[in-house]
Design brief:
This protein is an alpha+beta fold and about 220 residues long. Helix content is about 20%, strand content about 35%. The protein has a single domain, classed as Jelly Rolls (Sandwich), CATH 2.60.120.590. The strands form 4 sheets. It has an 8-stranded mixed beta sheet with strand order 1-2-14-11-16-9-5-8. The longest helix is centred in the first third of the chain and has 14 residues.
Length: about 220
């Protein structure tokens, strides 16, 4: 992991309303990105999860895997993902991403888009386990894919082309006010891996933190 550029790659902060969005278009050096992609594609225990939509169970159009600290469970749309222990490469990557973003993470969701036929539809990463204001750092490896954003309450859209080695940070009210997707792209034949770092905790812990943070009456 000597090719990591944490703390040195230029960062761009995007002025979107109701959100905090920053990205490093070339956070990971090209050689390191190719090496990491090959290792993750080969070593990750990929699975194709099933989600529940309108009472039906459907396989998602991509492969995924969940890594995390003990107790960092996660699920979405009726799917619960099996937790895997950190590999040395992912542990080193987490440390580097934390250094670059200034945020701490205890888990990572990996997605493998095998070609442009794989995708993820409009959604927000607003599961209760991620807290009231989720912070998510997403590293892209492999093929460049289009990342689209759509505001929930206004006619606002934004697009980024996430290339090999790009790092994206979503924070603030991003998941509450915006939805995002990776659409299908018929012209893309090569695969892409996204590594999305998160902080997942039991809901009761987030609620306990909120109670502690409430102002004391009369003060």
């Amino acid at each position: 992991m000597s090719g990591l550029l944490a703390g040195f790659a230029p960062v761009e902060r995007l002025a979107l309303p109701d959100a905090e969005l920053a990205w490093w278009p070339a956070w990971l050096a090209a050689d390191a990105a190719r090496e990491l992609f090959a290792a993750l594609q080969r070593e990750t225990p990929w699975e194709q999860s099933e989600i529940r939509i309108a009472g039906r169970r459907l396989r998602i159009p991509r492969l995924n895997a969940w890594y995390g600290d003990p107790g960092a469970g996660y699920g979405y749309s009726g799917a619960r993902l099996a937790r895997h222990a950190w590999t040395p490469a992912l542990a080193a990557l987490r440390t580097a991403v934390e250094g670059a973003t200034g945020h701490r993470f205890n888990s990572a969701l990996l997605n493998l888009y095998r070609s442009g036929a794989d995708s993820v539809d409009w959604h927000s990463d607003d599961e209760a386990e991620l807290g009231p204001q989720p912070v998510i750092a997403a590293l892209s490896l492999g093929a460049t894919r289009r990342f689209e954003l759509r505001h929930r309450g206004a006619s606002l859209r934004h697009r980024l082309d996430l290339g090999d080695g790009a790092l994206l940070l979503m924070a603030g009210g991003m998941q509450r006010h915006w939805r995002h997707r990776i659409p299908k792209e018929s012209g893309v034949a090569a695969p892409r891996i996204s590594v999305t770092f998160r902080r997942a905790r039991p809901v009761r812990q987030w609620r306990a933190d909120a109670r502690v943070a409430e102002p004391i009456p009369g003060c």
